[in-house]
Every structure is written in structure tokens, then in C-alpha cells.
């Protein structure tokens, strides 16, 4: 069983990007620059459905992880609304795109949908 888990985790470990001086200090799946490139395909309604799917899949996964902890989304928010919010944040903040895509998704959603702070 241990070997099966290691075998399944190996591709993730091998594909993780090494940290660099202009990035965060831990490996990440997708940088903000890569996320922005995928967003550009989504925004232009490109026929590159793979790239469009990467953008939407990535942000939906990050939304599921951060919901209620890093940001508080309205119950009726659509994937399109979230994609627009995140895409605008990436467009308006090019100086931050060297950070991980997950971090930028959290920042964008927290900026627009912060959780109420307890008194």
C-alpha cells in the first residue's frame, strides 16, 4: 500500500517546480503567469478547450479549498463570475503574477468576497 501511494504521488513530486528567487519559497502547480495565459484563452473564447479547461478547473479547485477560510463566496456565485473576478485581478496586477496561481486566486476572491471579521 505504501508503494502504491508513493507511485501515485511521484508524478506530482517530479512535476513540481523548484522555488526560485523571484517566486514563492515552495513548489507550486501553476504560477500566476501560467494561470493568466490560461485565462487569456478563456477570455478570448479560444477553441483551445484544454487551456480553457485548465483555467476553470484550477480556479474551481482553489475555490473549493479556500471557501469559508480564505474568502467567503456568496452561495449563488457562478463559475463565470468567479472566473471574471480572478481574471480581472490577474489583468490588473501583473506585478503579482510570479506568485503561485492558488495564492492569486485566494487574493482575488478575498479582495472581493472577504469573510466578515468577528467583533
Automatic annotation (TrEMBL):
Superkingdom of the organism of origin: Bacteria
Signal peptide: 1-21
Keyword Signal: yes
Domain Rap1a immunity protein span(s) in chain numbering: 31-115
InterPro entries named among the record's database cross-references: Rap1a
Keyword set, alphabetical order: Signal
Protein name per the record: Rap1a immunity protein domain-containing protein
Amino acid at each position: 500500500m505504501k508503494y502504491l501511494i508513493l507511485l501515485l504521488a511521484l508524478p506530482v513530486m517530479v512535476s513540481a517546480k523548484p522555488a526560485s528567487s523571484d517566486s514563492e519559497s515552495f513548489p507550486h502547480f501553476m504560477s500566476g503567469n501560467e494561470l493568466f495565459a490560461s485565462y487569456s484563452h478563456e477570455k478570448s473564447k479560444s477553441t483551445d478547450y484544454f487551456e480553457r479547461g485548465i483555467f476553470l478547473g484550477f480556479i474551481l479547485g482553489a475555490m473549493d479549498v479556500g471557501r469559508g477560510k480564505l474568502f467567503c463566496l456568496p452561495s449563488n456565485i457562478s463559475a463565470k463570475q468567479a472566473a471574471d473576478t480572478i481574471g480581472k485581478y490577474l489583468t490588473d496586477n501583473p506585478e503579482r503574477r510570479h506568485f503561485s496561481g492558488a495564492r492569486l486566486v485566494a487574493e482575488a476572491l478575498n479582495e472581493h468576497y472577504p469573510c466578515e471579521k468577528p467583533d
